[in-house]
Amino acid sequence: MAREAHERTGCSQGASPEGMDRLRAVFDLSGDAIFILDGEGRFLDVNRVACERYGYTREEMLRRHVYEMNTPEHARYSKGRMAVLQRDGAAFFETVHQAKDGGSIPTEINSRLIRQGGATFIVSICRDVTERVKAEEELRRSHSLLAGALESTADGILVVDDKGKICTYNRKFLEMWRIPMEVATSGDDDVALSHAVLQLKEPESFMKKVKEVYAARETESFDVLEFKDGRVFERFSIPLRVGGQSVGRVWSFRDVTAQKKMEENQQIFASLVEHSTDLIGIASMDGKVFYLNTVGQKLVGLDGLEEVRKTRIRDFAREKDLNPLQKMLSSLSEEGTWKGETRIRNFKTGSSIPFEMHGFVIRDAGNGRPIALATICRDISERKRMEEEMARADKLNSVGILAGGIAHDFNNLLTAIFGNITLAKMYANRQSEVYKRLEDSEKATLRAKDLTNQLLTFSKGGAPIKKTVLVEELAKEAACFALRGANVKCEFSFPAGLWSVEADEGQVSQVLNNLIINAAHAMNEGGTLQVSCGNVIVDGSDPQLAKGKYIVISIMDHGIGIPKEHLSKIFDPYFTTKKKGSGLGLSTSYSIVKNHGGYIKVESEMGIGTTFQIYLPASEGTRPSSKVDEGCFLAGQGRILVMDDEEAVREVARNMLESLGYSVTLAKDGMEAVATYQMAMGAGEPFDTVLMDLTIPGGMGGMEAIKRILEVDSKAKAIVCSGYSNDTIMANYRSFGFRGVVPKPYSIKQLSDTISNVLSASP
């Protein structure tokens, strides 16, 4: 039958039987399926490969038409392809054949139309391209995956060849560089790149780096790009290699604007934490401390984070503070936050520091799980000290209300007693026993006066009556007086050019006396007391002292020292460790210095000694000359009006003044004094001066009376005196119309000097 097919195609002409067999062998040995068709597409012959590939016998194949070999999807193209073959004599195409079992076989067909001896037949060589199609499909799939990956990446990707021409890019690249699609697809790379580069802060610098990268073909390059609108990109460029050869570059761009902003915020946060004046610490949930800011390290005495990370929370509390700490941690665990006051141990000194603390739990932002413990602590040592100062001041104020009233009444009595003793001494024989008794009484009265002065310091009165004084003279006088007969000597140190102070001479002397006497008592076995003065300029950093110039008086003993637990109490009224002490000396000193706008502080160490430092504002006036002897009483003449509610005081004042040569008229209150003054003016016999008590219980006092008198006589010369000043009148008497001041109790010497100065002063 095969021979018949060959004969129909004319293949047998001129061929021997042996040649035909060889031709048949080649036909069957071909690796491709071979179809021999007539001009209409009916099978005339097929080789063995065709039968094996499609699953048909040769006889079955010869009964088929070539159109039937295609799958239904490709059968519709068969007639068109046959027409091309008939027209051109050759055709090359791909199709999909269908085997007998229904399987699809991608096939590449190369057909020729042969006309010979009036016969027409077609030879088609059919090559199975299943593997190639699979490879192409895999390639297409890989390309699709690569393109998808390129489009899915969060980075902008740009691929260029070795000439700098754009090969491809992803959509993210266009979005990041804000390149419009019409610009990107215009085909003009220069326009697209210019549009992108001009957005940079430094486009010239960027292009310079690009050229450097292309000059070094194998170089990997990294850079950070900053845009004019604040965006920040990380740029990474690597060579694109194919077959080991560099054929271009791949550029990737990552938008790190948010990350940079976060880093900046973190830097700001870190700077705030490190420069905070509060202690800020963080610990793990099991109590291990792993962070403490610089201020915190300094406050608790730790040097660096390495030391900090060796500690646990409980290490920051003293043994006796562990129980409150545990309660705080329990509350923190249950509530998630804790606020209150606590004490933290200094690792170097062992002392505890008071803190105002806010502790809280740091939680994971995603699931809310606790991840750390944090605290912000403010050192309230200074605040506590101020609170103690205020409490001390409140105590002094409470005592002062009582003390002031007592001092007022007591001073009135002392004025009468002291004045009468002074007068009695004038008439007594200096060699008589009476005179000696009067001197003893006078000394006792002076000691009583010192006590009332201490009481006055607590009262709302006791305001210092200031004048410019030399501190070194007061210090020498106080030391000589206080150490008389003691086994303690005193060393003085006063620099040249020492400033003077505006102070109440008597009150400052009282402070120095108290401190020097205490120092002598502390050195019961004798020794040397050191008293020094110096000029100091305060810059305002000390909350206890205003900015300005000060004199500092230092009194240093080498005695037994003051126990640490007593240091905070020594200025409290009535606090004393002495068996015979009143507890008023240091509290009086504290009030006096404070009323002068100064400050007193103490440092002490047991077995070493104690140092008191007194700060007093320096005087802006000229430095006064040294003291001279007081001299004798100053006699005078003239008419004096004395106003006081105590008859005994009025009488002793009249006796003193008359003994000095003055004519005296008495008044028991302000109303009587004003009326008497007006009558004298009307009679043409005005008073030369008026001595007025400031406080008249239930009646007009000196302040109101002087106003009335000045309305009558603007040139009136009045002197204010009182055993208790409840405001600043005694210290600022001139502001209220008085010409002089004399505190009760007063001596005849004080009275004579004050009146003489007032009368001799110009109107």
What can you see in these coordinates?
This protein is of the alpha+beta class. It has a 5-stranded antiparallel β-sheet, sandwiched between helices. A 5-stranded antiparallel β-sheet has the order 7-6-10-9-8, sandwiched between helices. Helix 22 links the parallel strand 23 (639-643) and strand 24 (663-667). Helix 17 crosses helix 21 (585-595), helix 18 (471-482) packs across helix 19 (505-522) and helix 19 (505-522) runs antiparallel to helix 21. The protein is rod-shaped. The N and C termini lie far apart (165 Å).
Cross-sheet strand order for the largest sheet: 2-1-5-4-3
Q: Tell me the major beta sheet.
A: 5 strands, antiparallel
What spatial form do the alpha-carbon principal axes imply?
A: rod-shaped
Helix content: 40-55%
Give the end-to-end Cα distance, rounded to a whole number of Å: 165 Å
Rg over CA atoms, rounded to whole Å, is 58 Å
Put simply, the count of helices is: 25
Structural class: alpha+beta
Summarize it:
The protein is of the alpha+beta class and 763 residues long. The strands form 6 sheets. It has a 5-stranded antiparallel sheet with strand order 2-1-5-4-3, with helices on both faces.
